[in-house]
Write a structure and sequence with these properties.
4 helices, 430 residues, mainly beta, globular, 10% helix
């Protein structure tokens, strides 16, 4: 408990003390001593020869690697450094492979080291049951952020995931990205300088709490995208997070202009929490501070303009509960104009052009669920204590760009209650 408290103080110190530069780092890894080529070869060999139950210890120092580190189909393996500011694995000169570290296995623990400058993802884990990231820092130190990797911490198609006391920065997609997975905790972590700070995509049974997401284009995202092996995810709780000044430029690769271009390109700078085709999400007790476009945005997939039909998948956000959050938009600036969603908010919101919104809803609904948006067919429940003081905008977009309207009345979404059930007790005790 004491260590967790100290780490929380560390996160607050970072927020208060670090300047908002494009290339902010939590420490200067260049000051670390370079390890010998023999030590680098030993580390590569440790990964290759690891058996079930192995403990791979990485002593302090700066490791310059030309090949990725792969742990393939192993069980009960721990990979640990001397601390995220003491053990740094640099993949800037990588000549083979894309990810820095690639994991497939069962009951894998990674802790106490940093990964820098992987050309693709920092750490990717796939098809792993039982996965812990603890005190892991992944970042990019390039001057040109468009050359940064896609995801920093990237578990996909995994089960029983714990991400605790980690730091992810400068990804050109998401810093902490959990995709097509189930049973997930993301806590006590810091995400900054990314396009998306923390993203839960097509996942079941996730809790995201006690994190700091700051200076990203979007703070925390919950998406369900079509055409993936795992379709609609459901059951996510987002609570007790500090979501602060996520006004960073969106530097994601645009759709159609590279292999990493994807839906995150639509996120306007200044987005606090974004739900896209999300199901069964509860958002509560978060601090949403100076996110210049909106605090919380609820949207269907139609707003992307991409095809919105796929098997076993729905494009609508539904069964959403929002309560007990605090909002502060003072000195946030005007909403973003670089993305169409930002333009929609800035020009067509219900409170006046150029005004930051606390909560927005795109207003798309499934006709089979109700005849009118006034019936709250998607079961969006907003129960904020000071709702009358907040800027709420519901948009009317059903007839396209030629007839856009907005409404400031949240009452259709207040007389309801949604119970979101998650159970992460099986991993909470780690």
């Amino acid at each position: 408990m004491k260590r967790q408290y100290l780490f929380s103080l560390f996160l607050i110190f970072l927020f208060a003390a670090c300047g908002k530069t494009n290339h902010e780092q939590i420490f200067d890894s260049a000051k670390l001593p370079r390890v010998s080529s023999a030590q680098v070869e030993q580390l590569i060999e440790d990964f290759i020869l690891a058996e079930d139950g192995a403990i791979i210890e990485i002593p302090a120092g700066f490791y310059e690697l030309e090949t990725q580190l792969i742990l393939d189909n192993k069980k009960n393996v721990t990979i640990k450094g001397a601390g995220m500011e003491q053990t740094v694995l640099s993949f800037r000169e990588l000549k083979s492979g894309g990810e820095g570290i690639k994991i497939v296995g069962e009951n894998i623990i990674l802790q106490d080291f940093s990964v820098e400058d992987a050309p693709g993802d920092g750490i990717k884990a796939q098809h792993t049951d039982g996965l812990t990231f603890r005190r892991i820092n992944v970042t990019w130190t390039h001057g040109d952020k468009s050359k940064n990797g896609t995801y920093a911490i990237y578990p996909v198609q995994c089960k029983n995931i714990m991400i605790d006391e980690c730091i992810a920065s400068h990804s050109r997609d998401a810093g902490i990205y959990v995709g097509q997975s189930e049973n997930i905790i993301v806590k006590n972590s810091l995400a900054f300088g990314n396009v998306a700070g923390i993203e839960i995509e097509n996942c079941d049974n996730a809790e995201v709490f006690d994190n700091v997401a700051r200076d990203n284009a979007g703070g925390i995202l919950v998406f369900n995208l079509p055409g993936l092996p795992k379709s609609d995810g459901r059951g996510t709780k987002i609570y007790r997070n500090k979501i602060i000044e996520n006004n960073h430029k969106n530097f994601a690769t645009p759709m159609g202009e590279g292999p990493n271009g994807n839906t995150v390109t639509m996120i306007p700078p200044g987005s606090g929490i974004v739900l896209l085709a999300a199901k069964e999400v509860e958002i509560f007790e978060n601090e949403l501070i100076r996110n210049k476009t909106f605090g919380i945005g609820i949207a269907s997939y139609q707003i992307t303009g991409f095809p919105s039909e796929a098997p076993n998948w729905s494009p609508y956000s539904k069964n959403i509960s929002i309560h007990g959050n605090t909002y502060d938009r003072k000195r946030a600036g005007i909403p973003d104009l670089s993305r169409e969603l930002g333009q929609l908010v800035s020009i067509y919101n219900a409170h006046g052009k150029g005004k930051t919104q606390d909560i927005i809803y795109d207003g798309f609904w499934e006709n089979t669920q109700g005849k009118s948006i006034e019936d709250n067919p998607m079961n969006l429940c907003i129960r904020e204590d000071n709702l009358s003081e907040l800027r709420f905008s519901r948009f009317y977009l059903m007839e396209g760009e030629d007839k856009i309207d907005s409404f400031d009345d949240p009452s259709p979404f207040t007389n309801c209650r949604v119970e979101i059930n998650t159970d992460v007790s099986m991993i909470a005790a780690r």
